[in-house]
Amino acid sequence: MNVFETVTVGGADSYDIVVGRKLLAQVAKSLRDNVRQVLIIHPISLTNSADLLAESLREAGYIALQAGVEDGEPAKRIEVAAWCWGIMGQADFTRSDAIIGFGGGSTTDLAGFVASTWLRGVQLVQVPTTLLGMVDAAIGGKTGVNTAEGKNLVGTFYAPSAVICDLDTLETLPRNEILAGFGEIVKYGFIADEKILELIESDLEAATDTSSDAFAELIRRSIAIKARVVTNDFKEASEREILNYGHTLGHAVELLERYQWRHGAAVSVGMMFVAELARLSGLLSDEVVDRHRAILTSIGLPTTYEAAKWDQLLGAMQRDKKSRAGTLRFVVLEGIGKPRILSAPTPELLFAAYQEICE
Ligand code: GLY
User: Fold this and answer.
1) Which of 49, 254, 264, 275 could hold 289 in an S-S bridge, CB 3.0 to 4.6 Å?
2) DSSP per-residue string spanning 321-343
3) Sheet arrangement for strand 63-69
4) pTM of this structure
5) Measured from the CB, is residue 42 less than 6 Å from ligand 1?
6) 62 alpha carbon – ligand 1 mean position (Å)
7) CA of 188 to the centre of ligand 1 (A)
8) pLDDT per residue as tens digits for the range 223-282
9) CA of 58 to the centre of ligand 1 (A)
10) Domains by residue range for the chain, with CATH
């Protein structure tokens, strides 16, 4: 076991995020003393790794059950949650048993939802196995399932009791997926930590190599920002909104692309859009906007989108659950590390910013 750092999320339900390598044994250590049995919710594609985790938990004295679910968004359905509840009911799962979410962001969202609803809440340990899961989805207690009307429309805020980020699990991920995960890492750089941008700019190869020290530092810095923000504002009443930098247009792009684009790629286009929006509003310099384009392009993330899609994008943004009473709100920058909200920009300004990112 090789722990690089433990980051604490504060607040009423404080918990630790452990970052390191070879952390399988850490999962059993994070369970409360009275836990008797655990249900590992994992994608079927990770069955072999989930089997190893279950074995290590059995060796530590726990009864370990497994629920293999579909990969990605298809797992985030109420029917899948109900199937997990069924497994727990059959096993007489009590309040002192625990759920482990082992997988990417969709799996940890589902596992969090199941844990928060069974007997009004059982212990939850999140073990993200993707870059996006580690730096975003598994931290901060947002859980949810999708409905026919949209993503994450049903869910809870429910803090895990621990998050275990084992960087070794990333080594078998396709490079494309790692690079897409950098959409969120770049986001943290622009909203809160310029050092993240410098690490990427100074040596892209090292920064994107999951076995490098630079990569580990980027993960640690990203997690530290997310932990700080959700400590201050667990239920997204104010500061947590800054984590949505690039996400308003990004979510609309994901919807138009029928969720076939990777999240980080859609957020990349969304960040470019809000950078242009801030520039045209007189808030952000040309230099910082160009820096967005240069960094995102160097990683291979998209910075443009289709000119003809504006009306559809605008409609999708207006329907987004994060717009308030139909008023569009965007997180924009006044400089690196200086996010703020821009509320109700005029249609002309929005269209002008979009034209700057059209293919
Ligand atoms: N993914 C944004 C948040 O957790 O608030």
Assistant:
1) 275
2) TTSBTTB-EEEEESSTT-EEEEE
3) 2-9, 15-21, 162-166, 123-128, 98-103, 37-43, 63-69
4) 0.95
5) no
6) 32
7) 12
8) 999 999 999 999 999 999 999 999 999 999 999 999 899 999 999 999 999 999 999 999
9) 33
10) 3-170 (3.40.50.1970), 175-355 (1.20.1090.10)
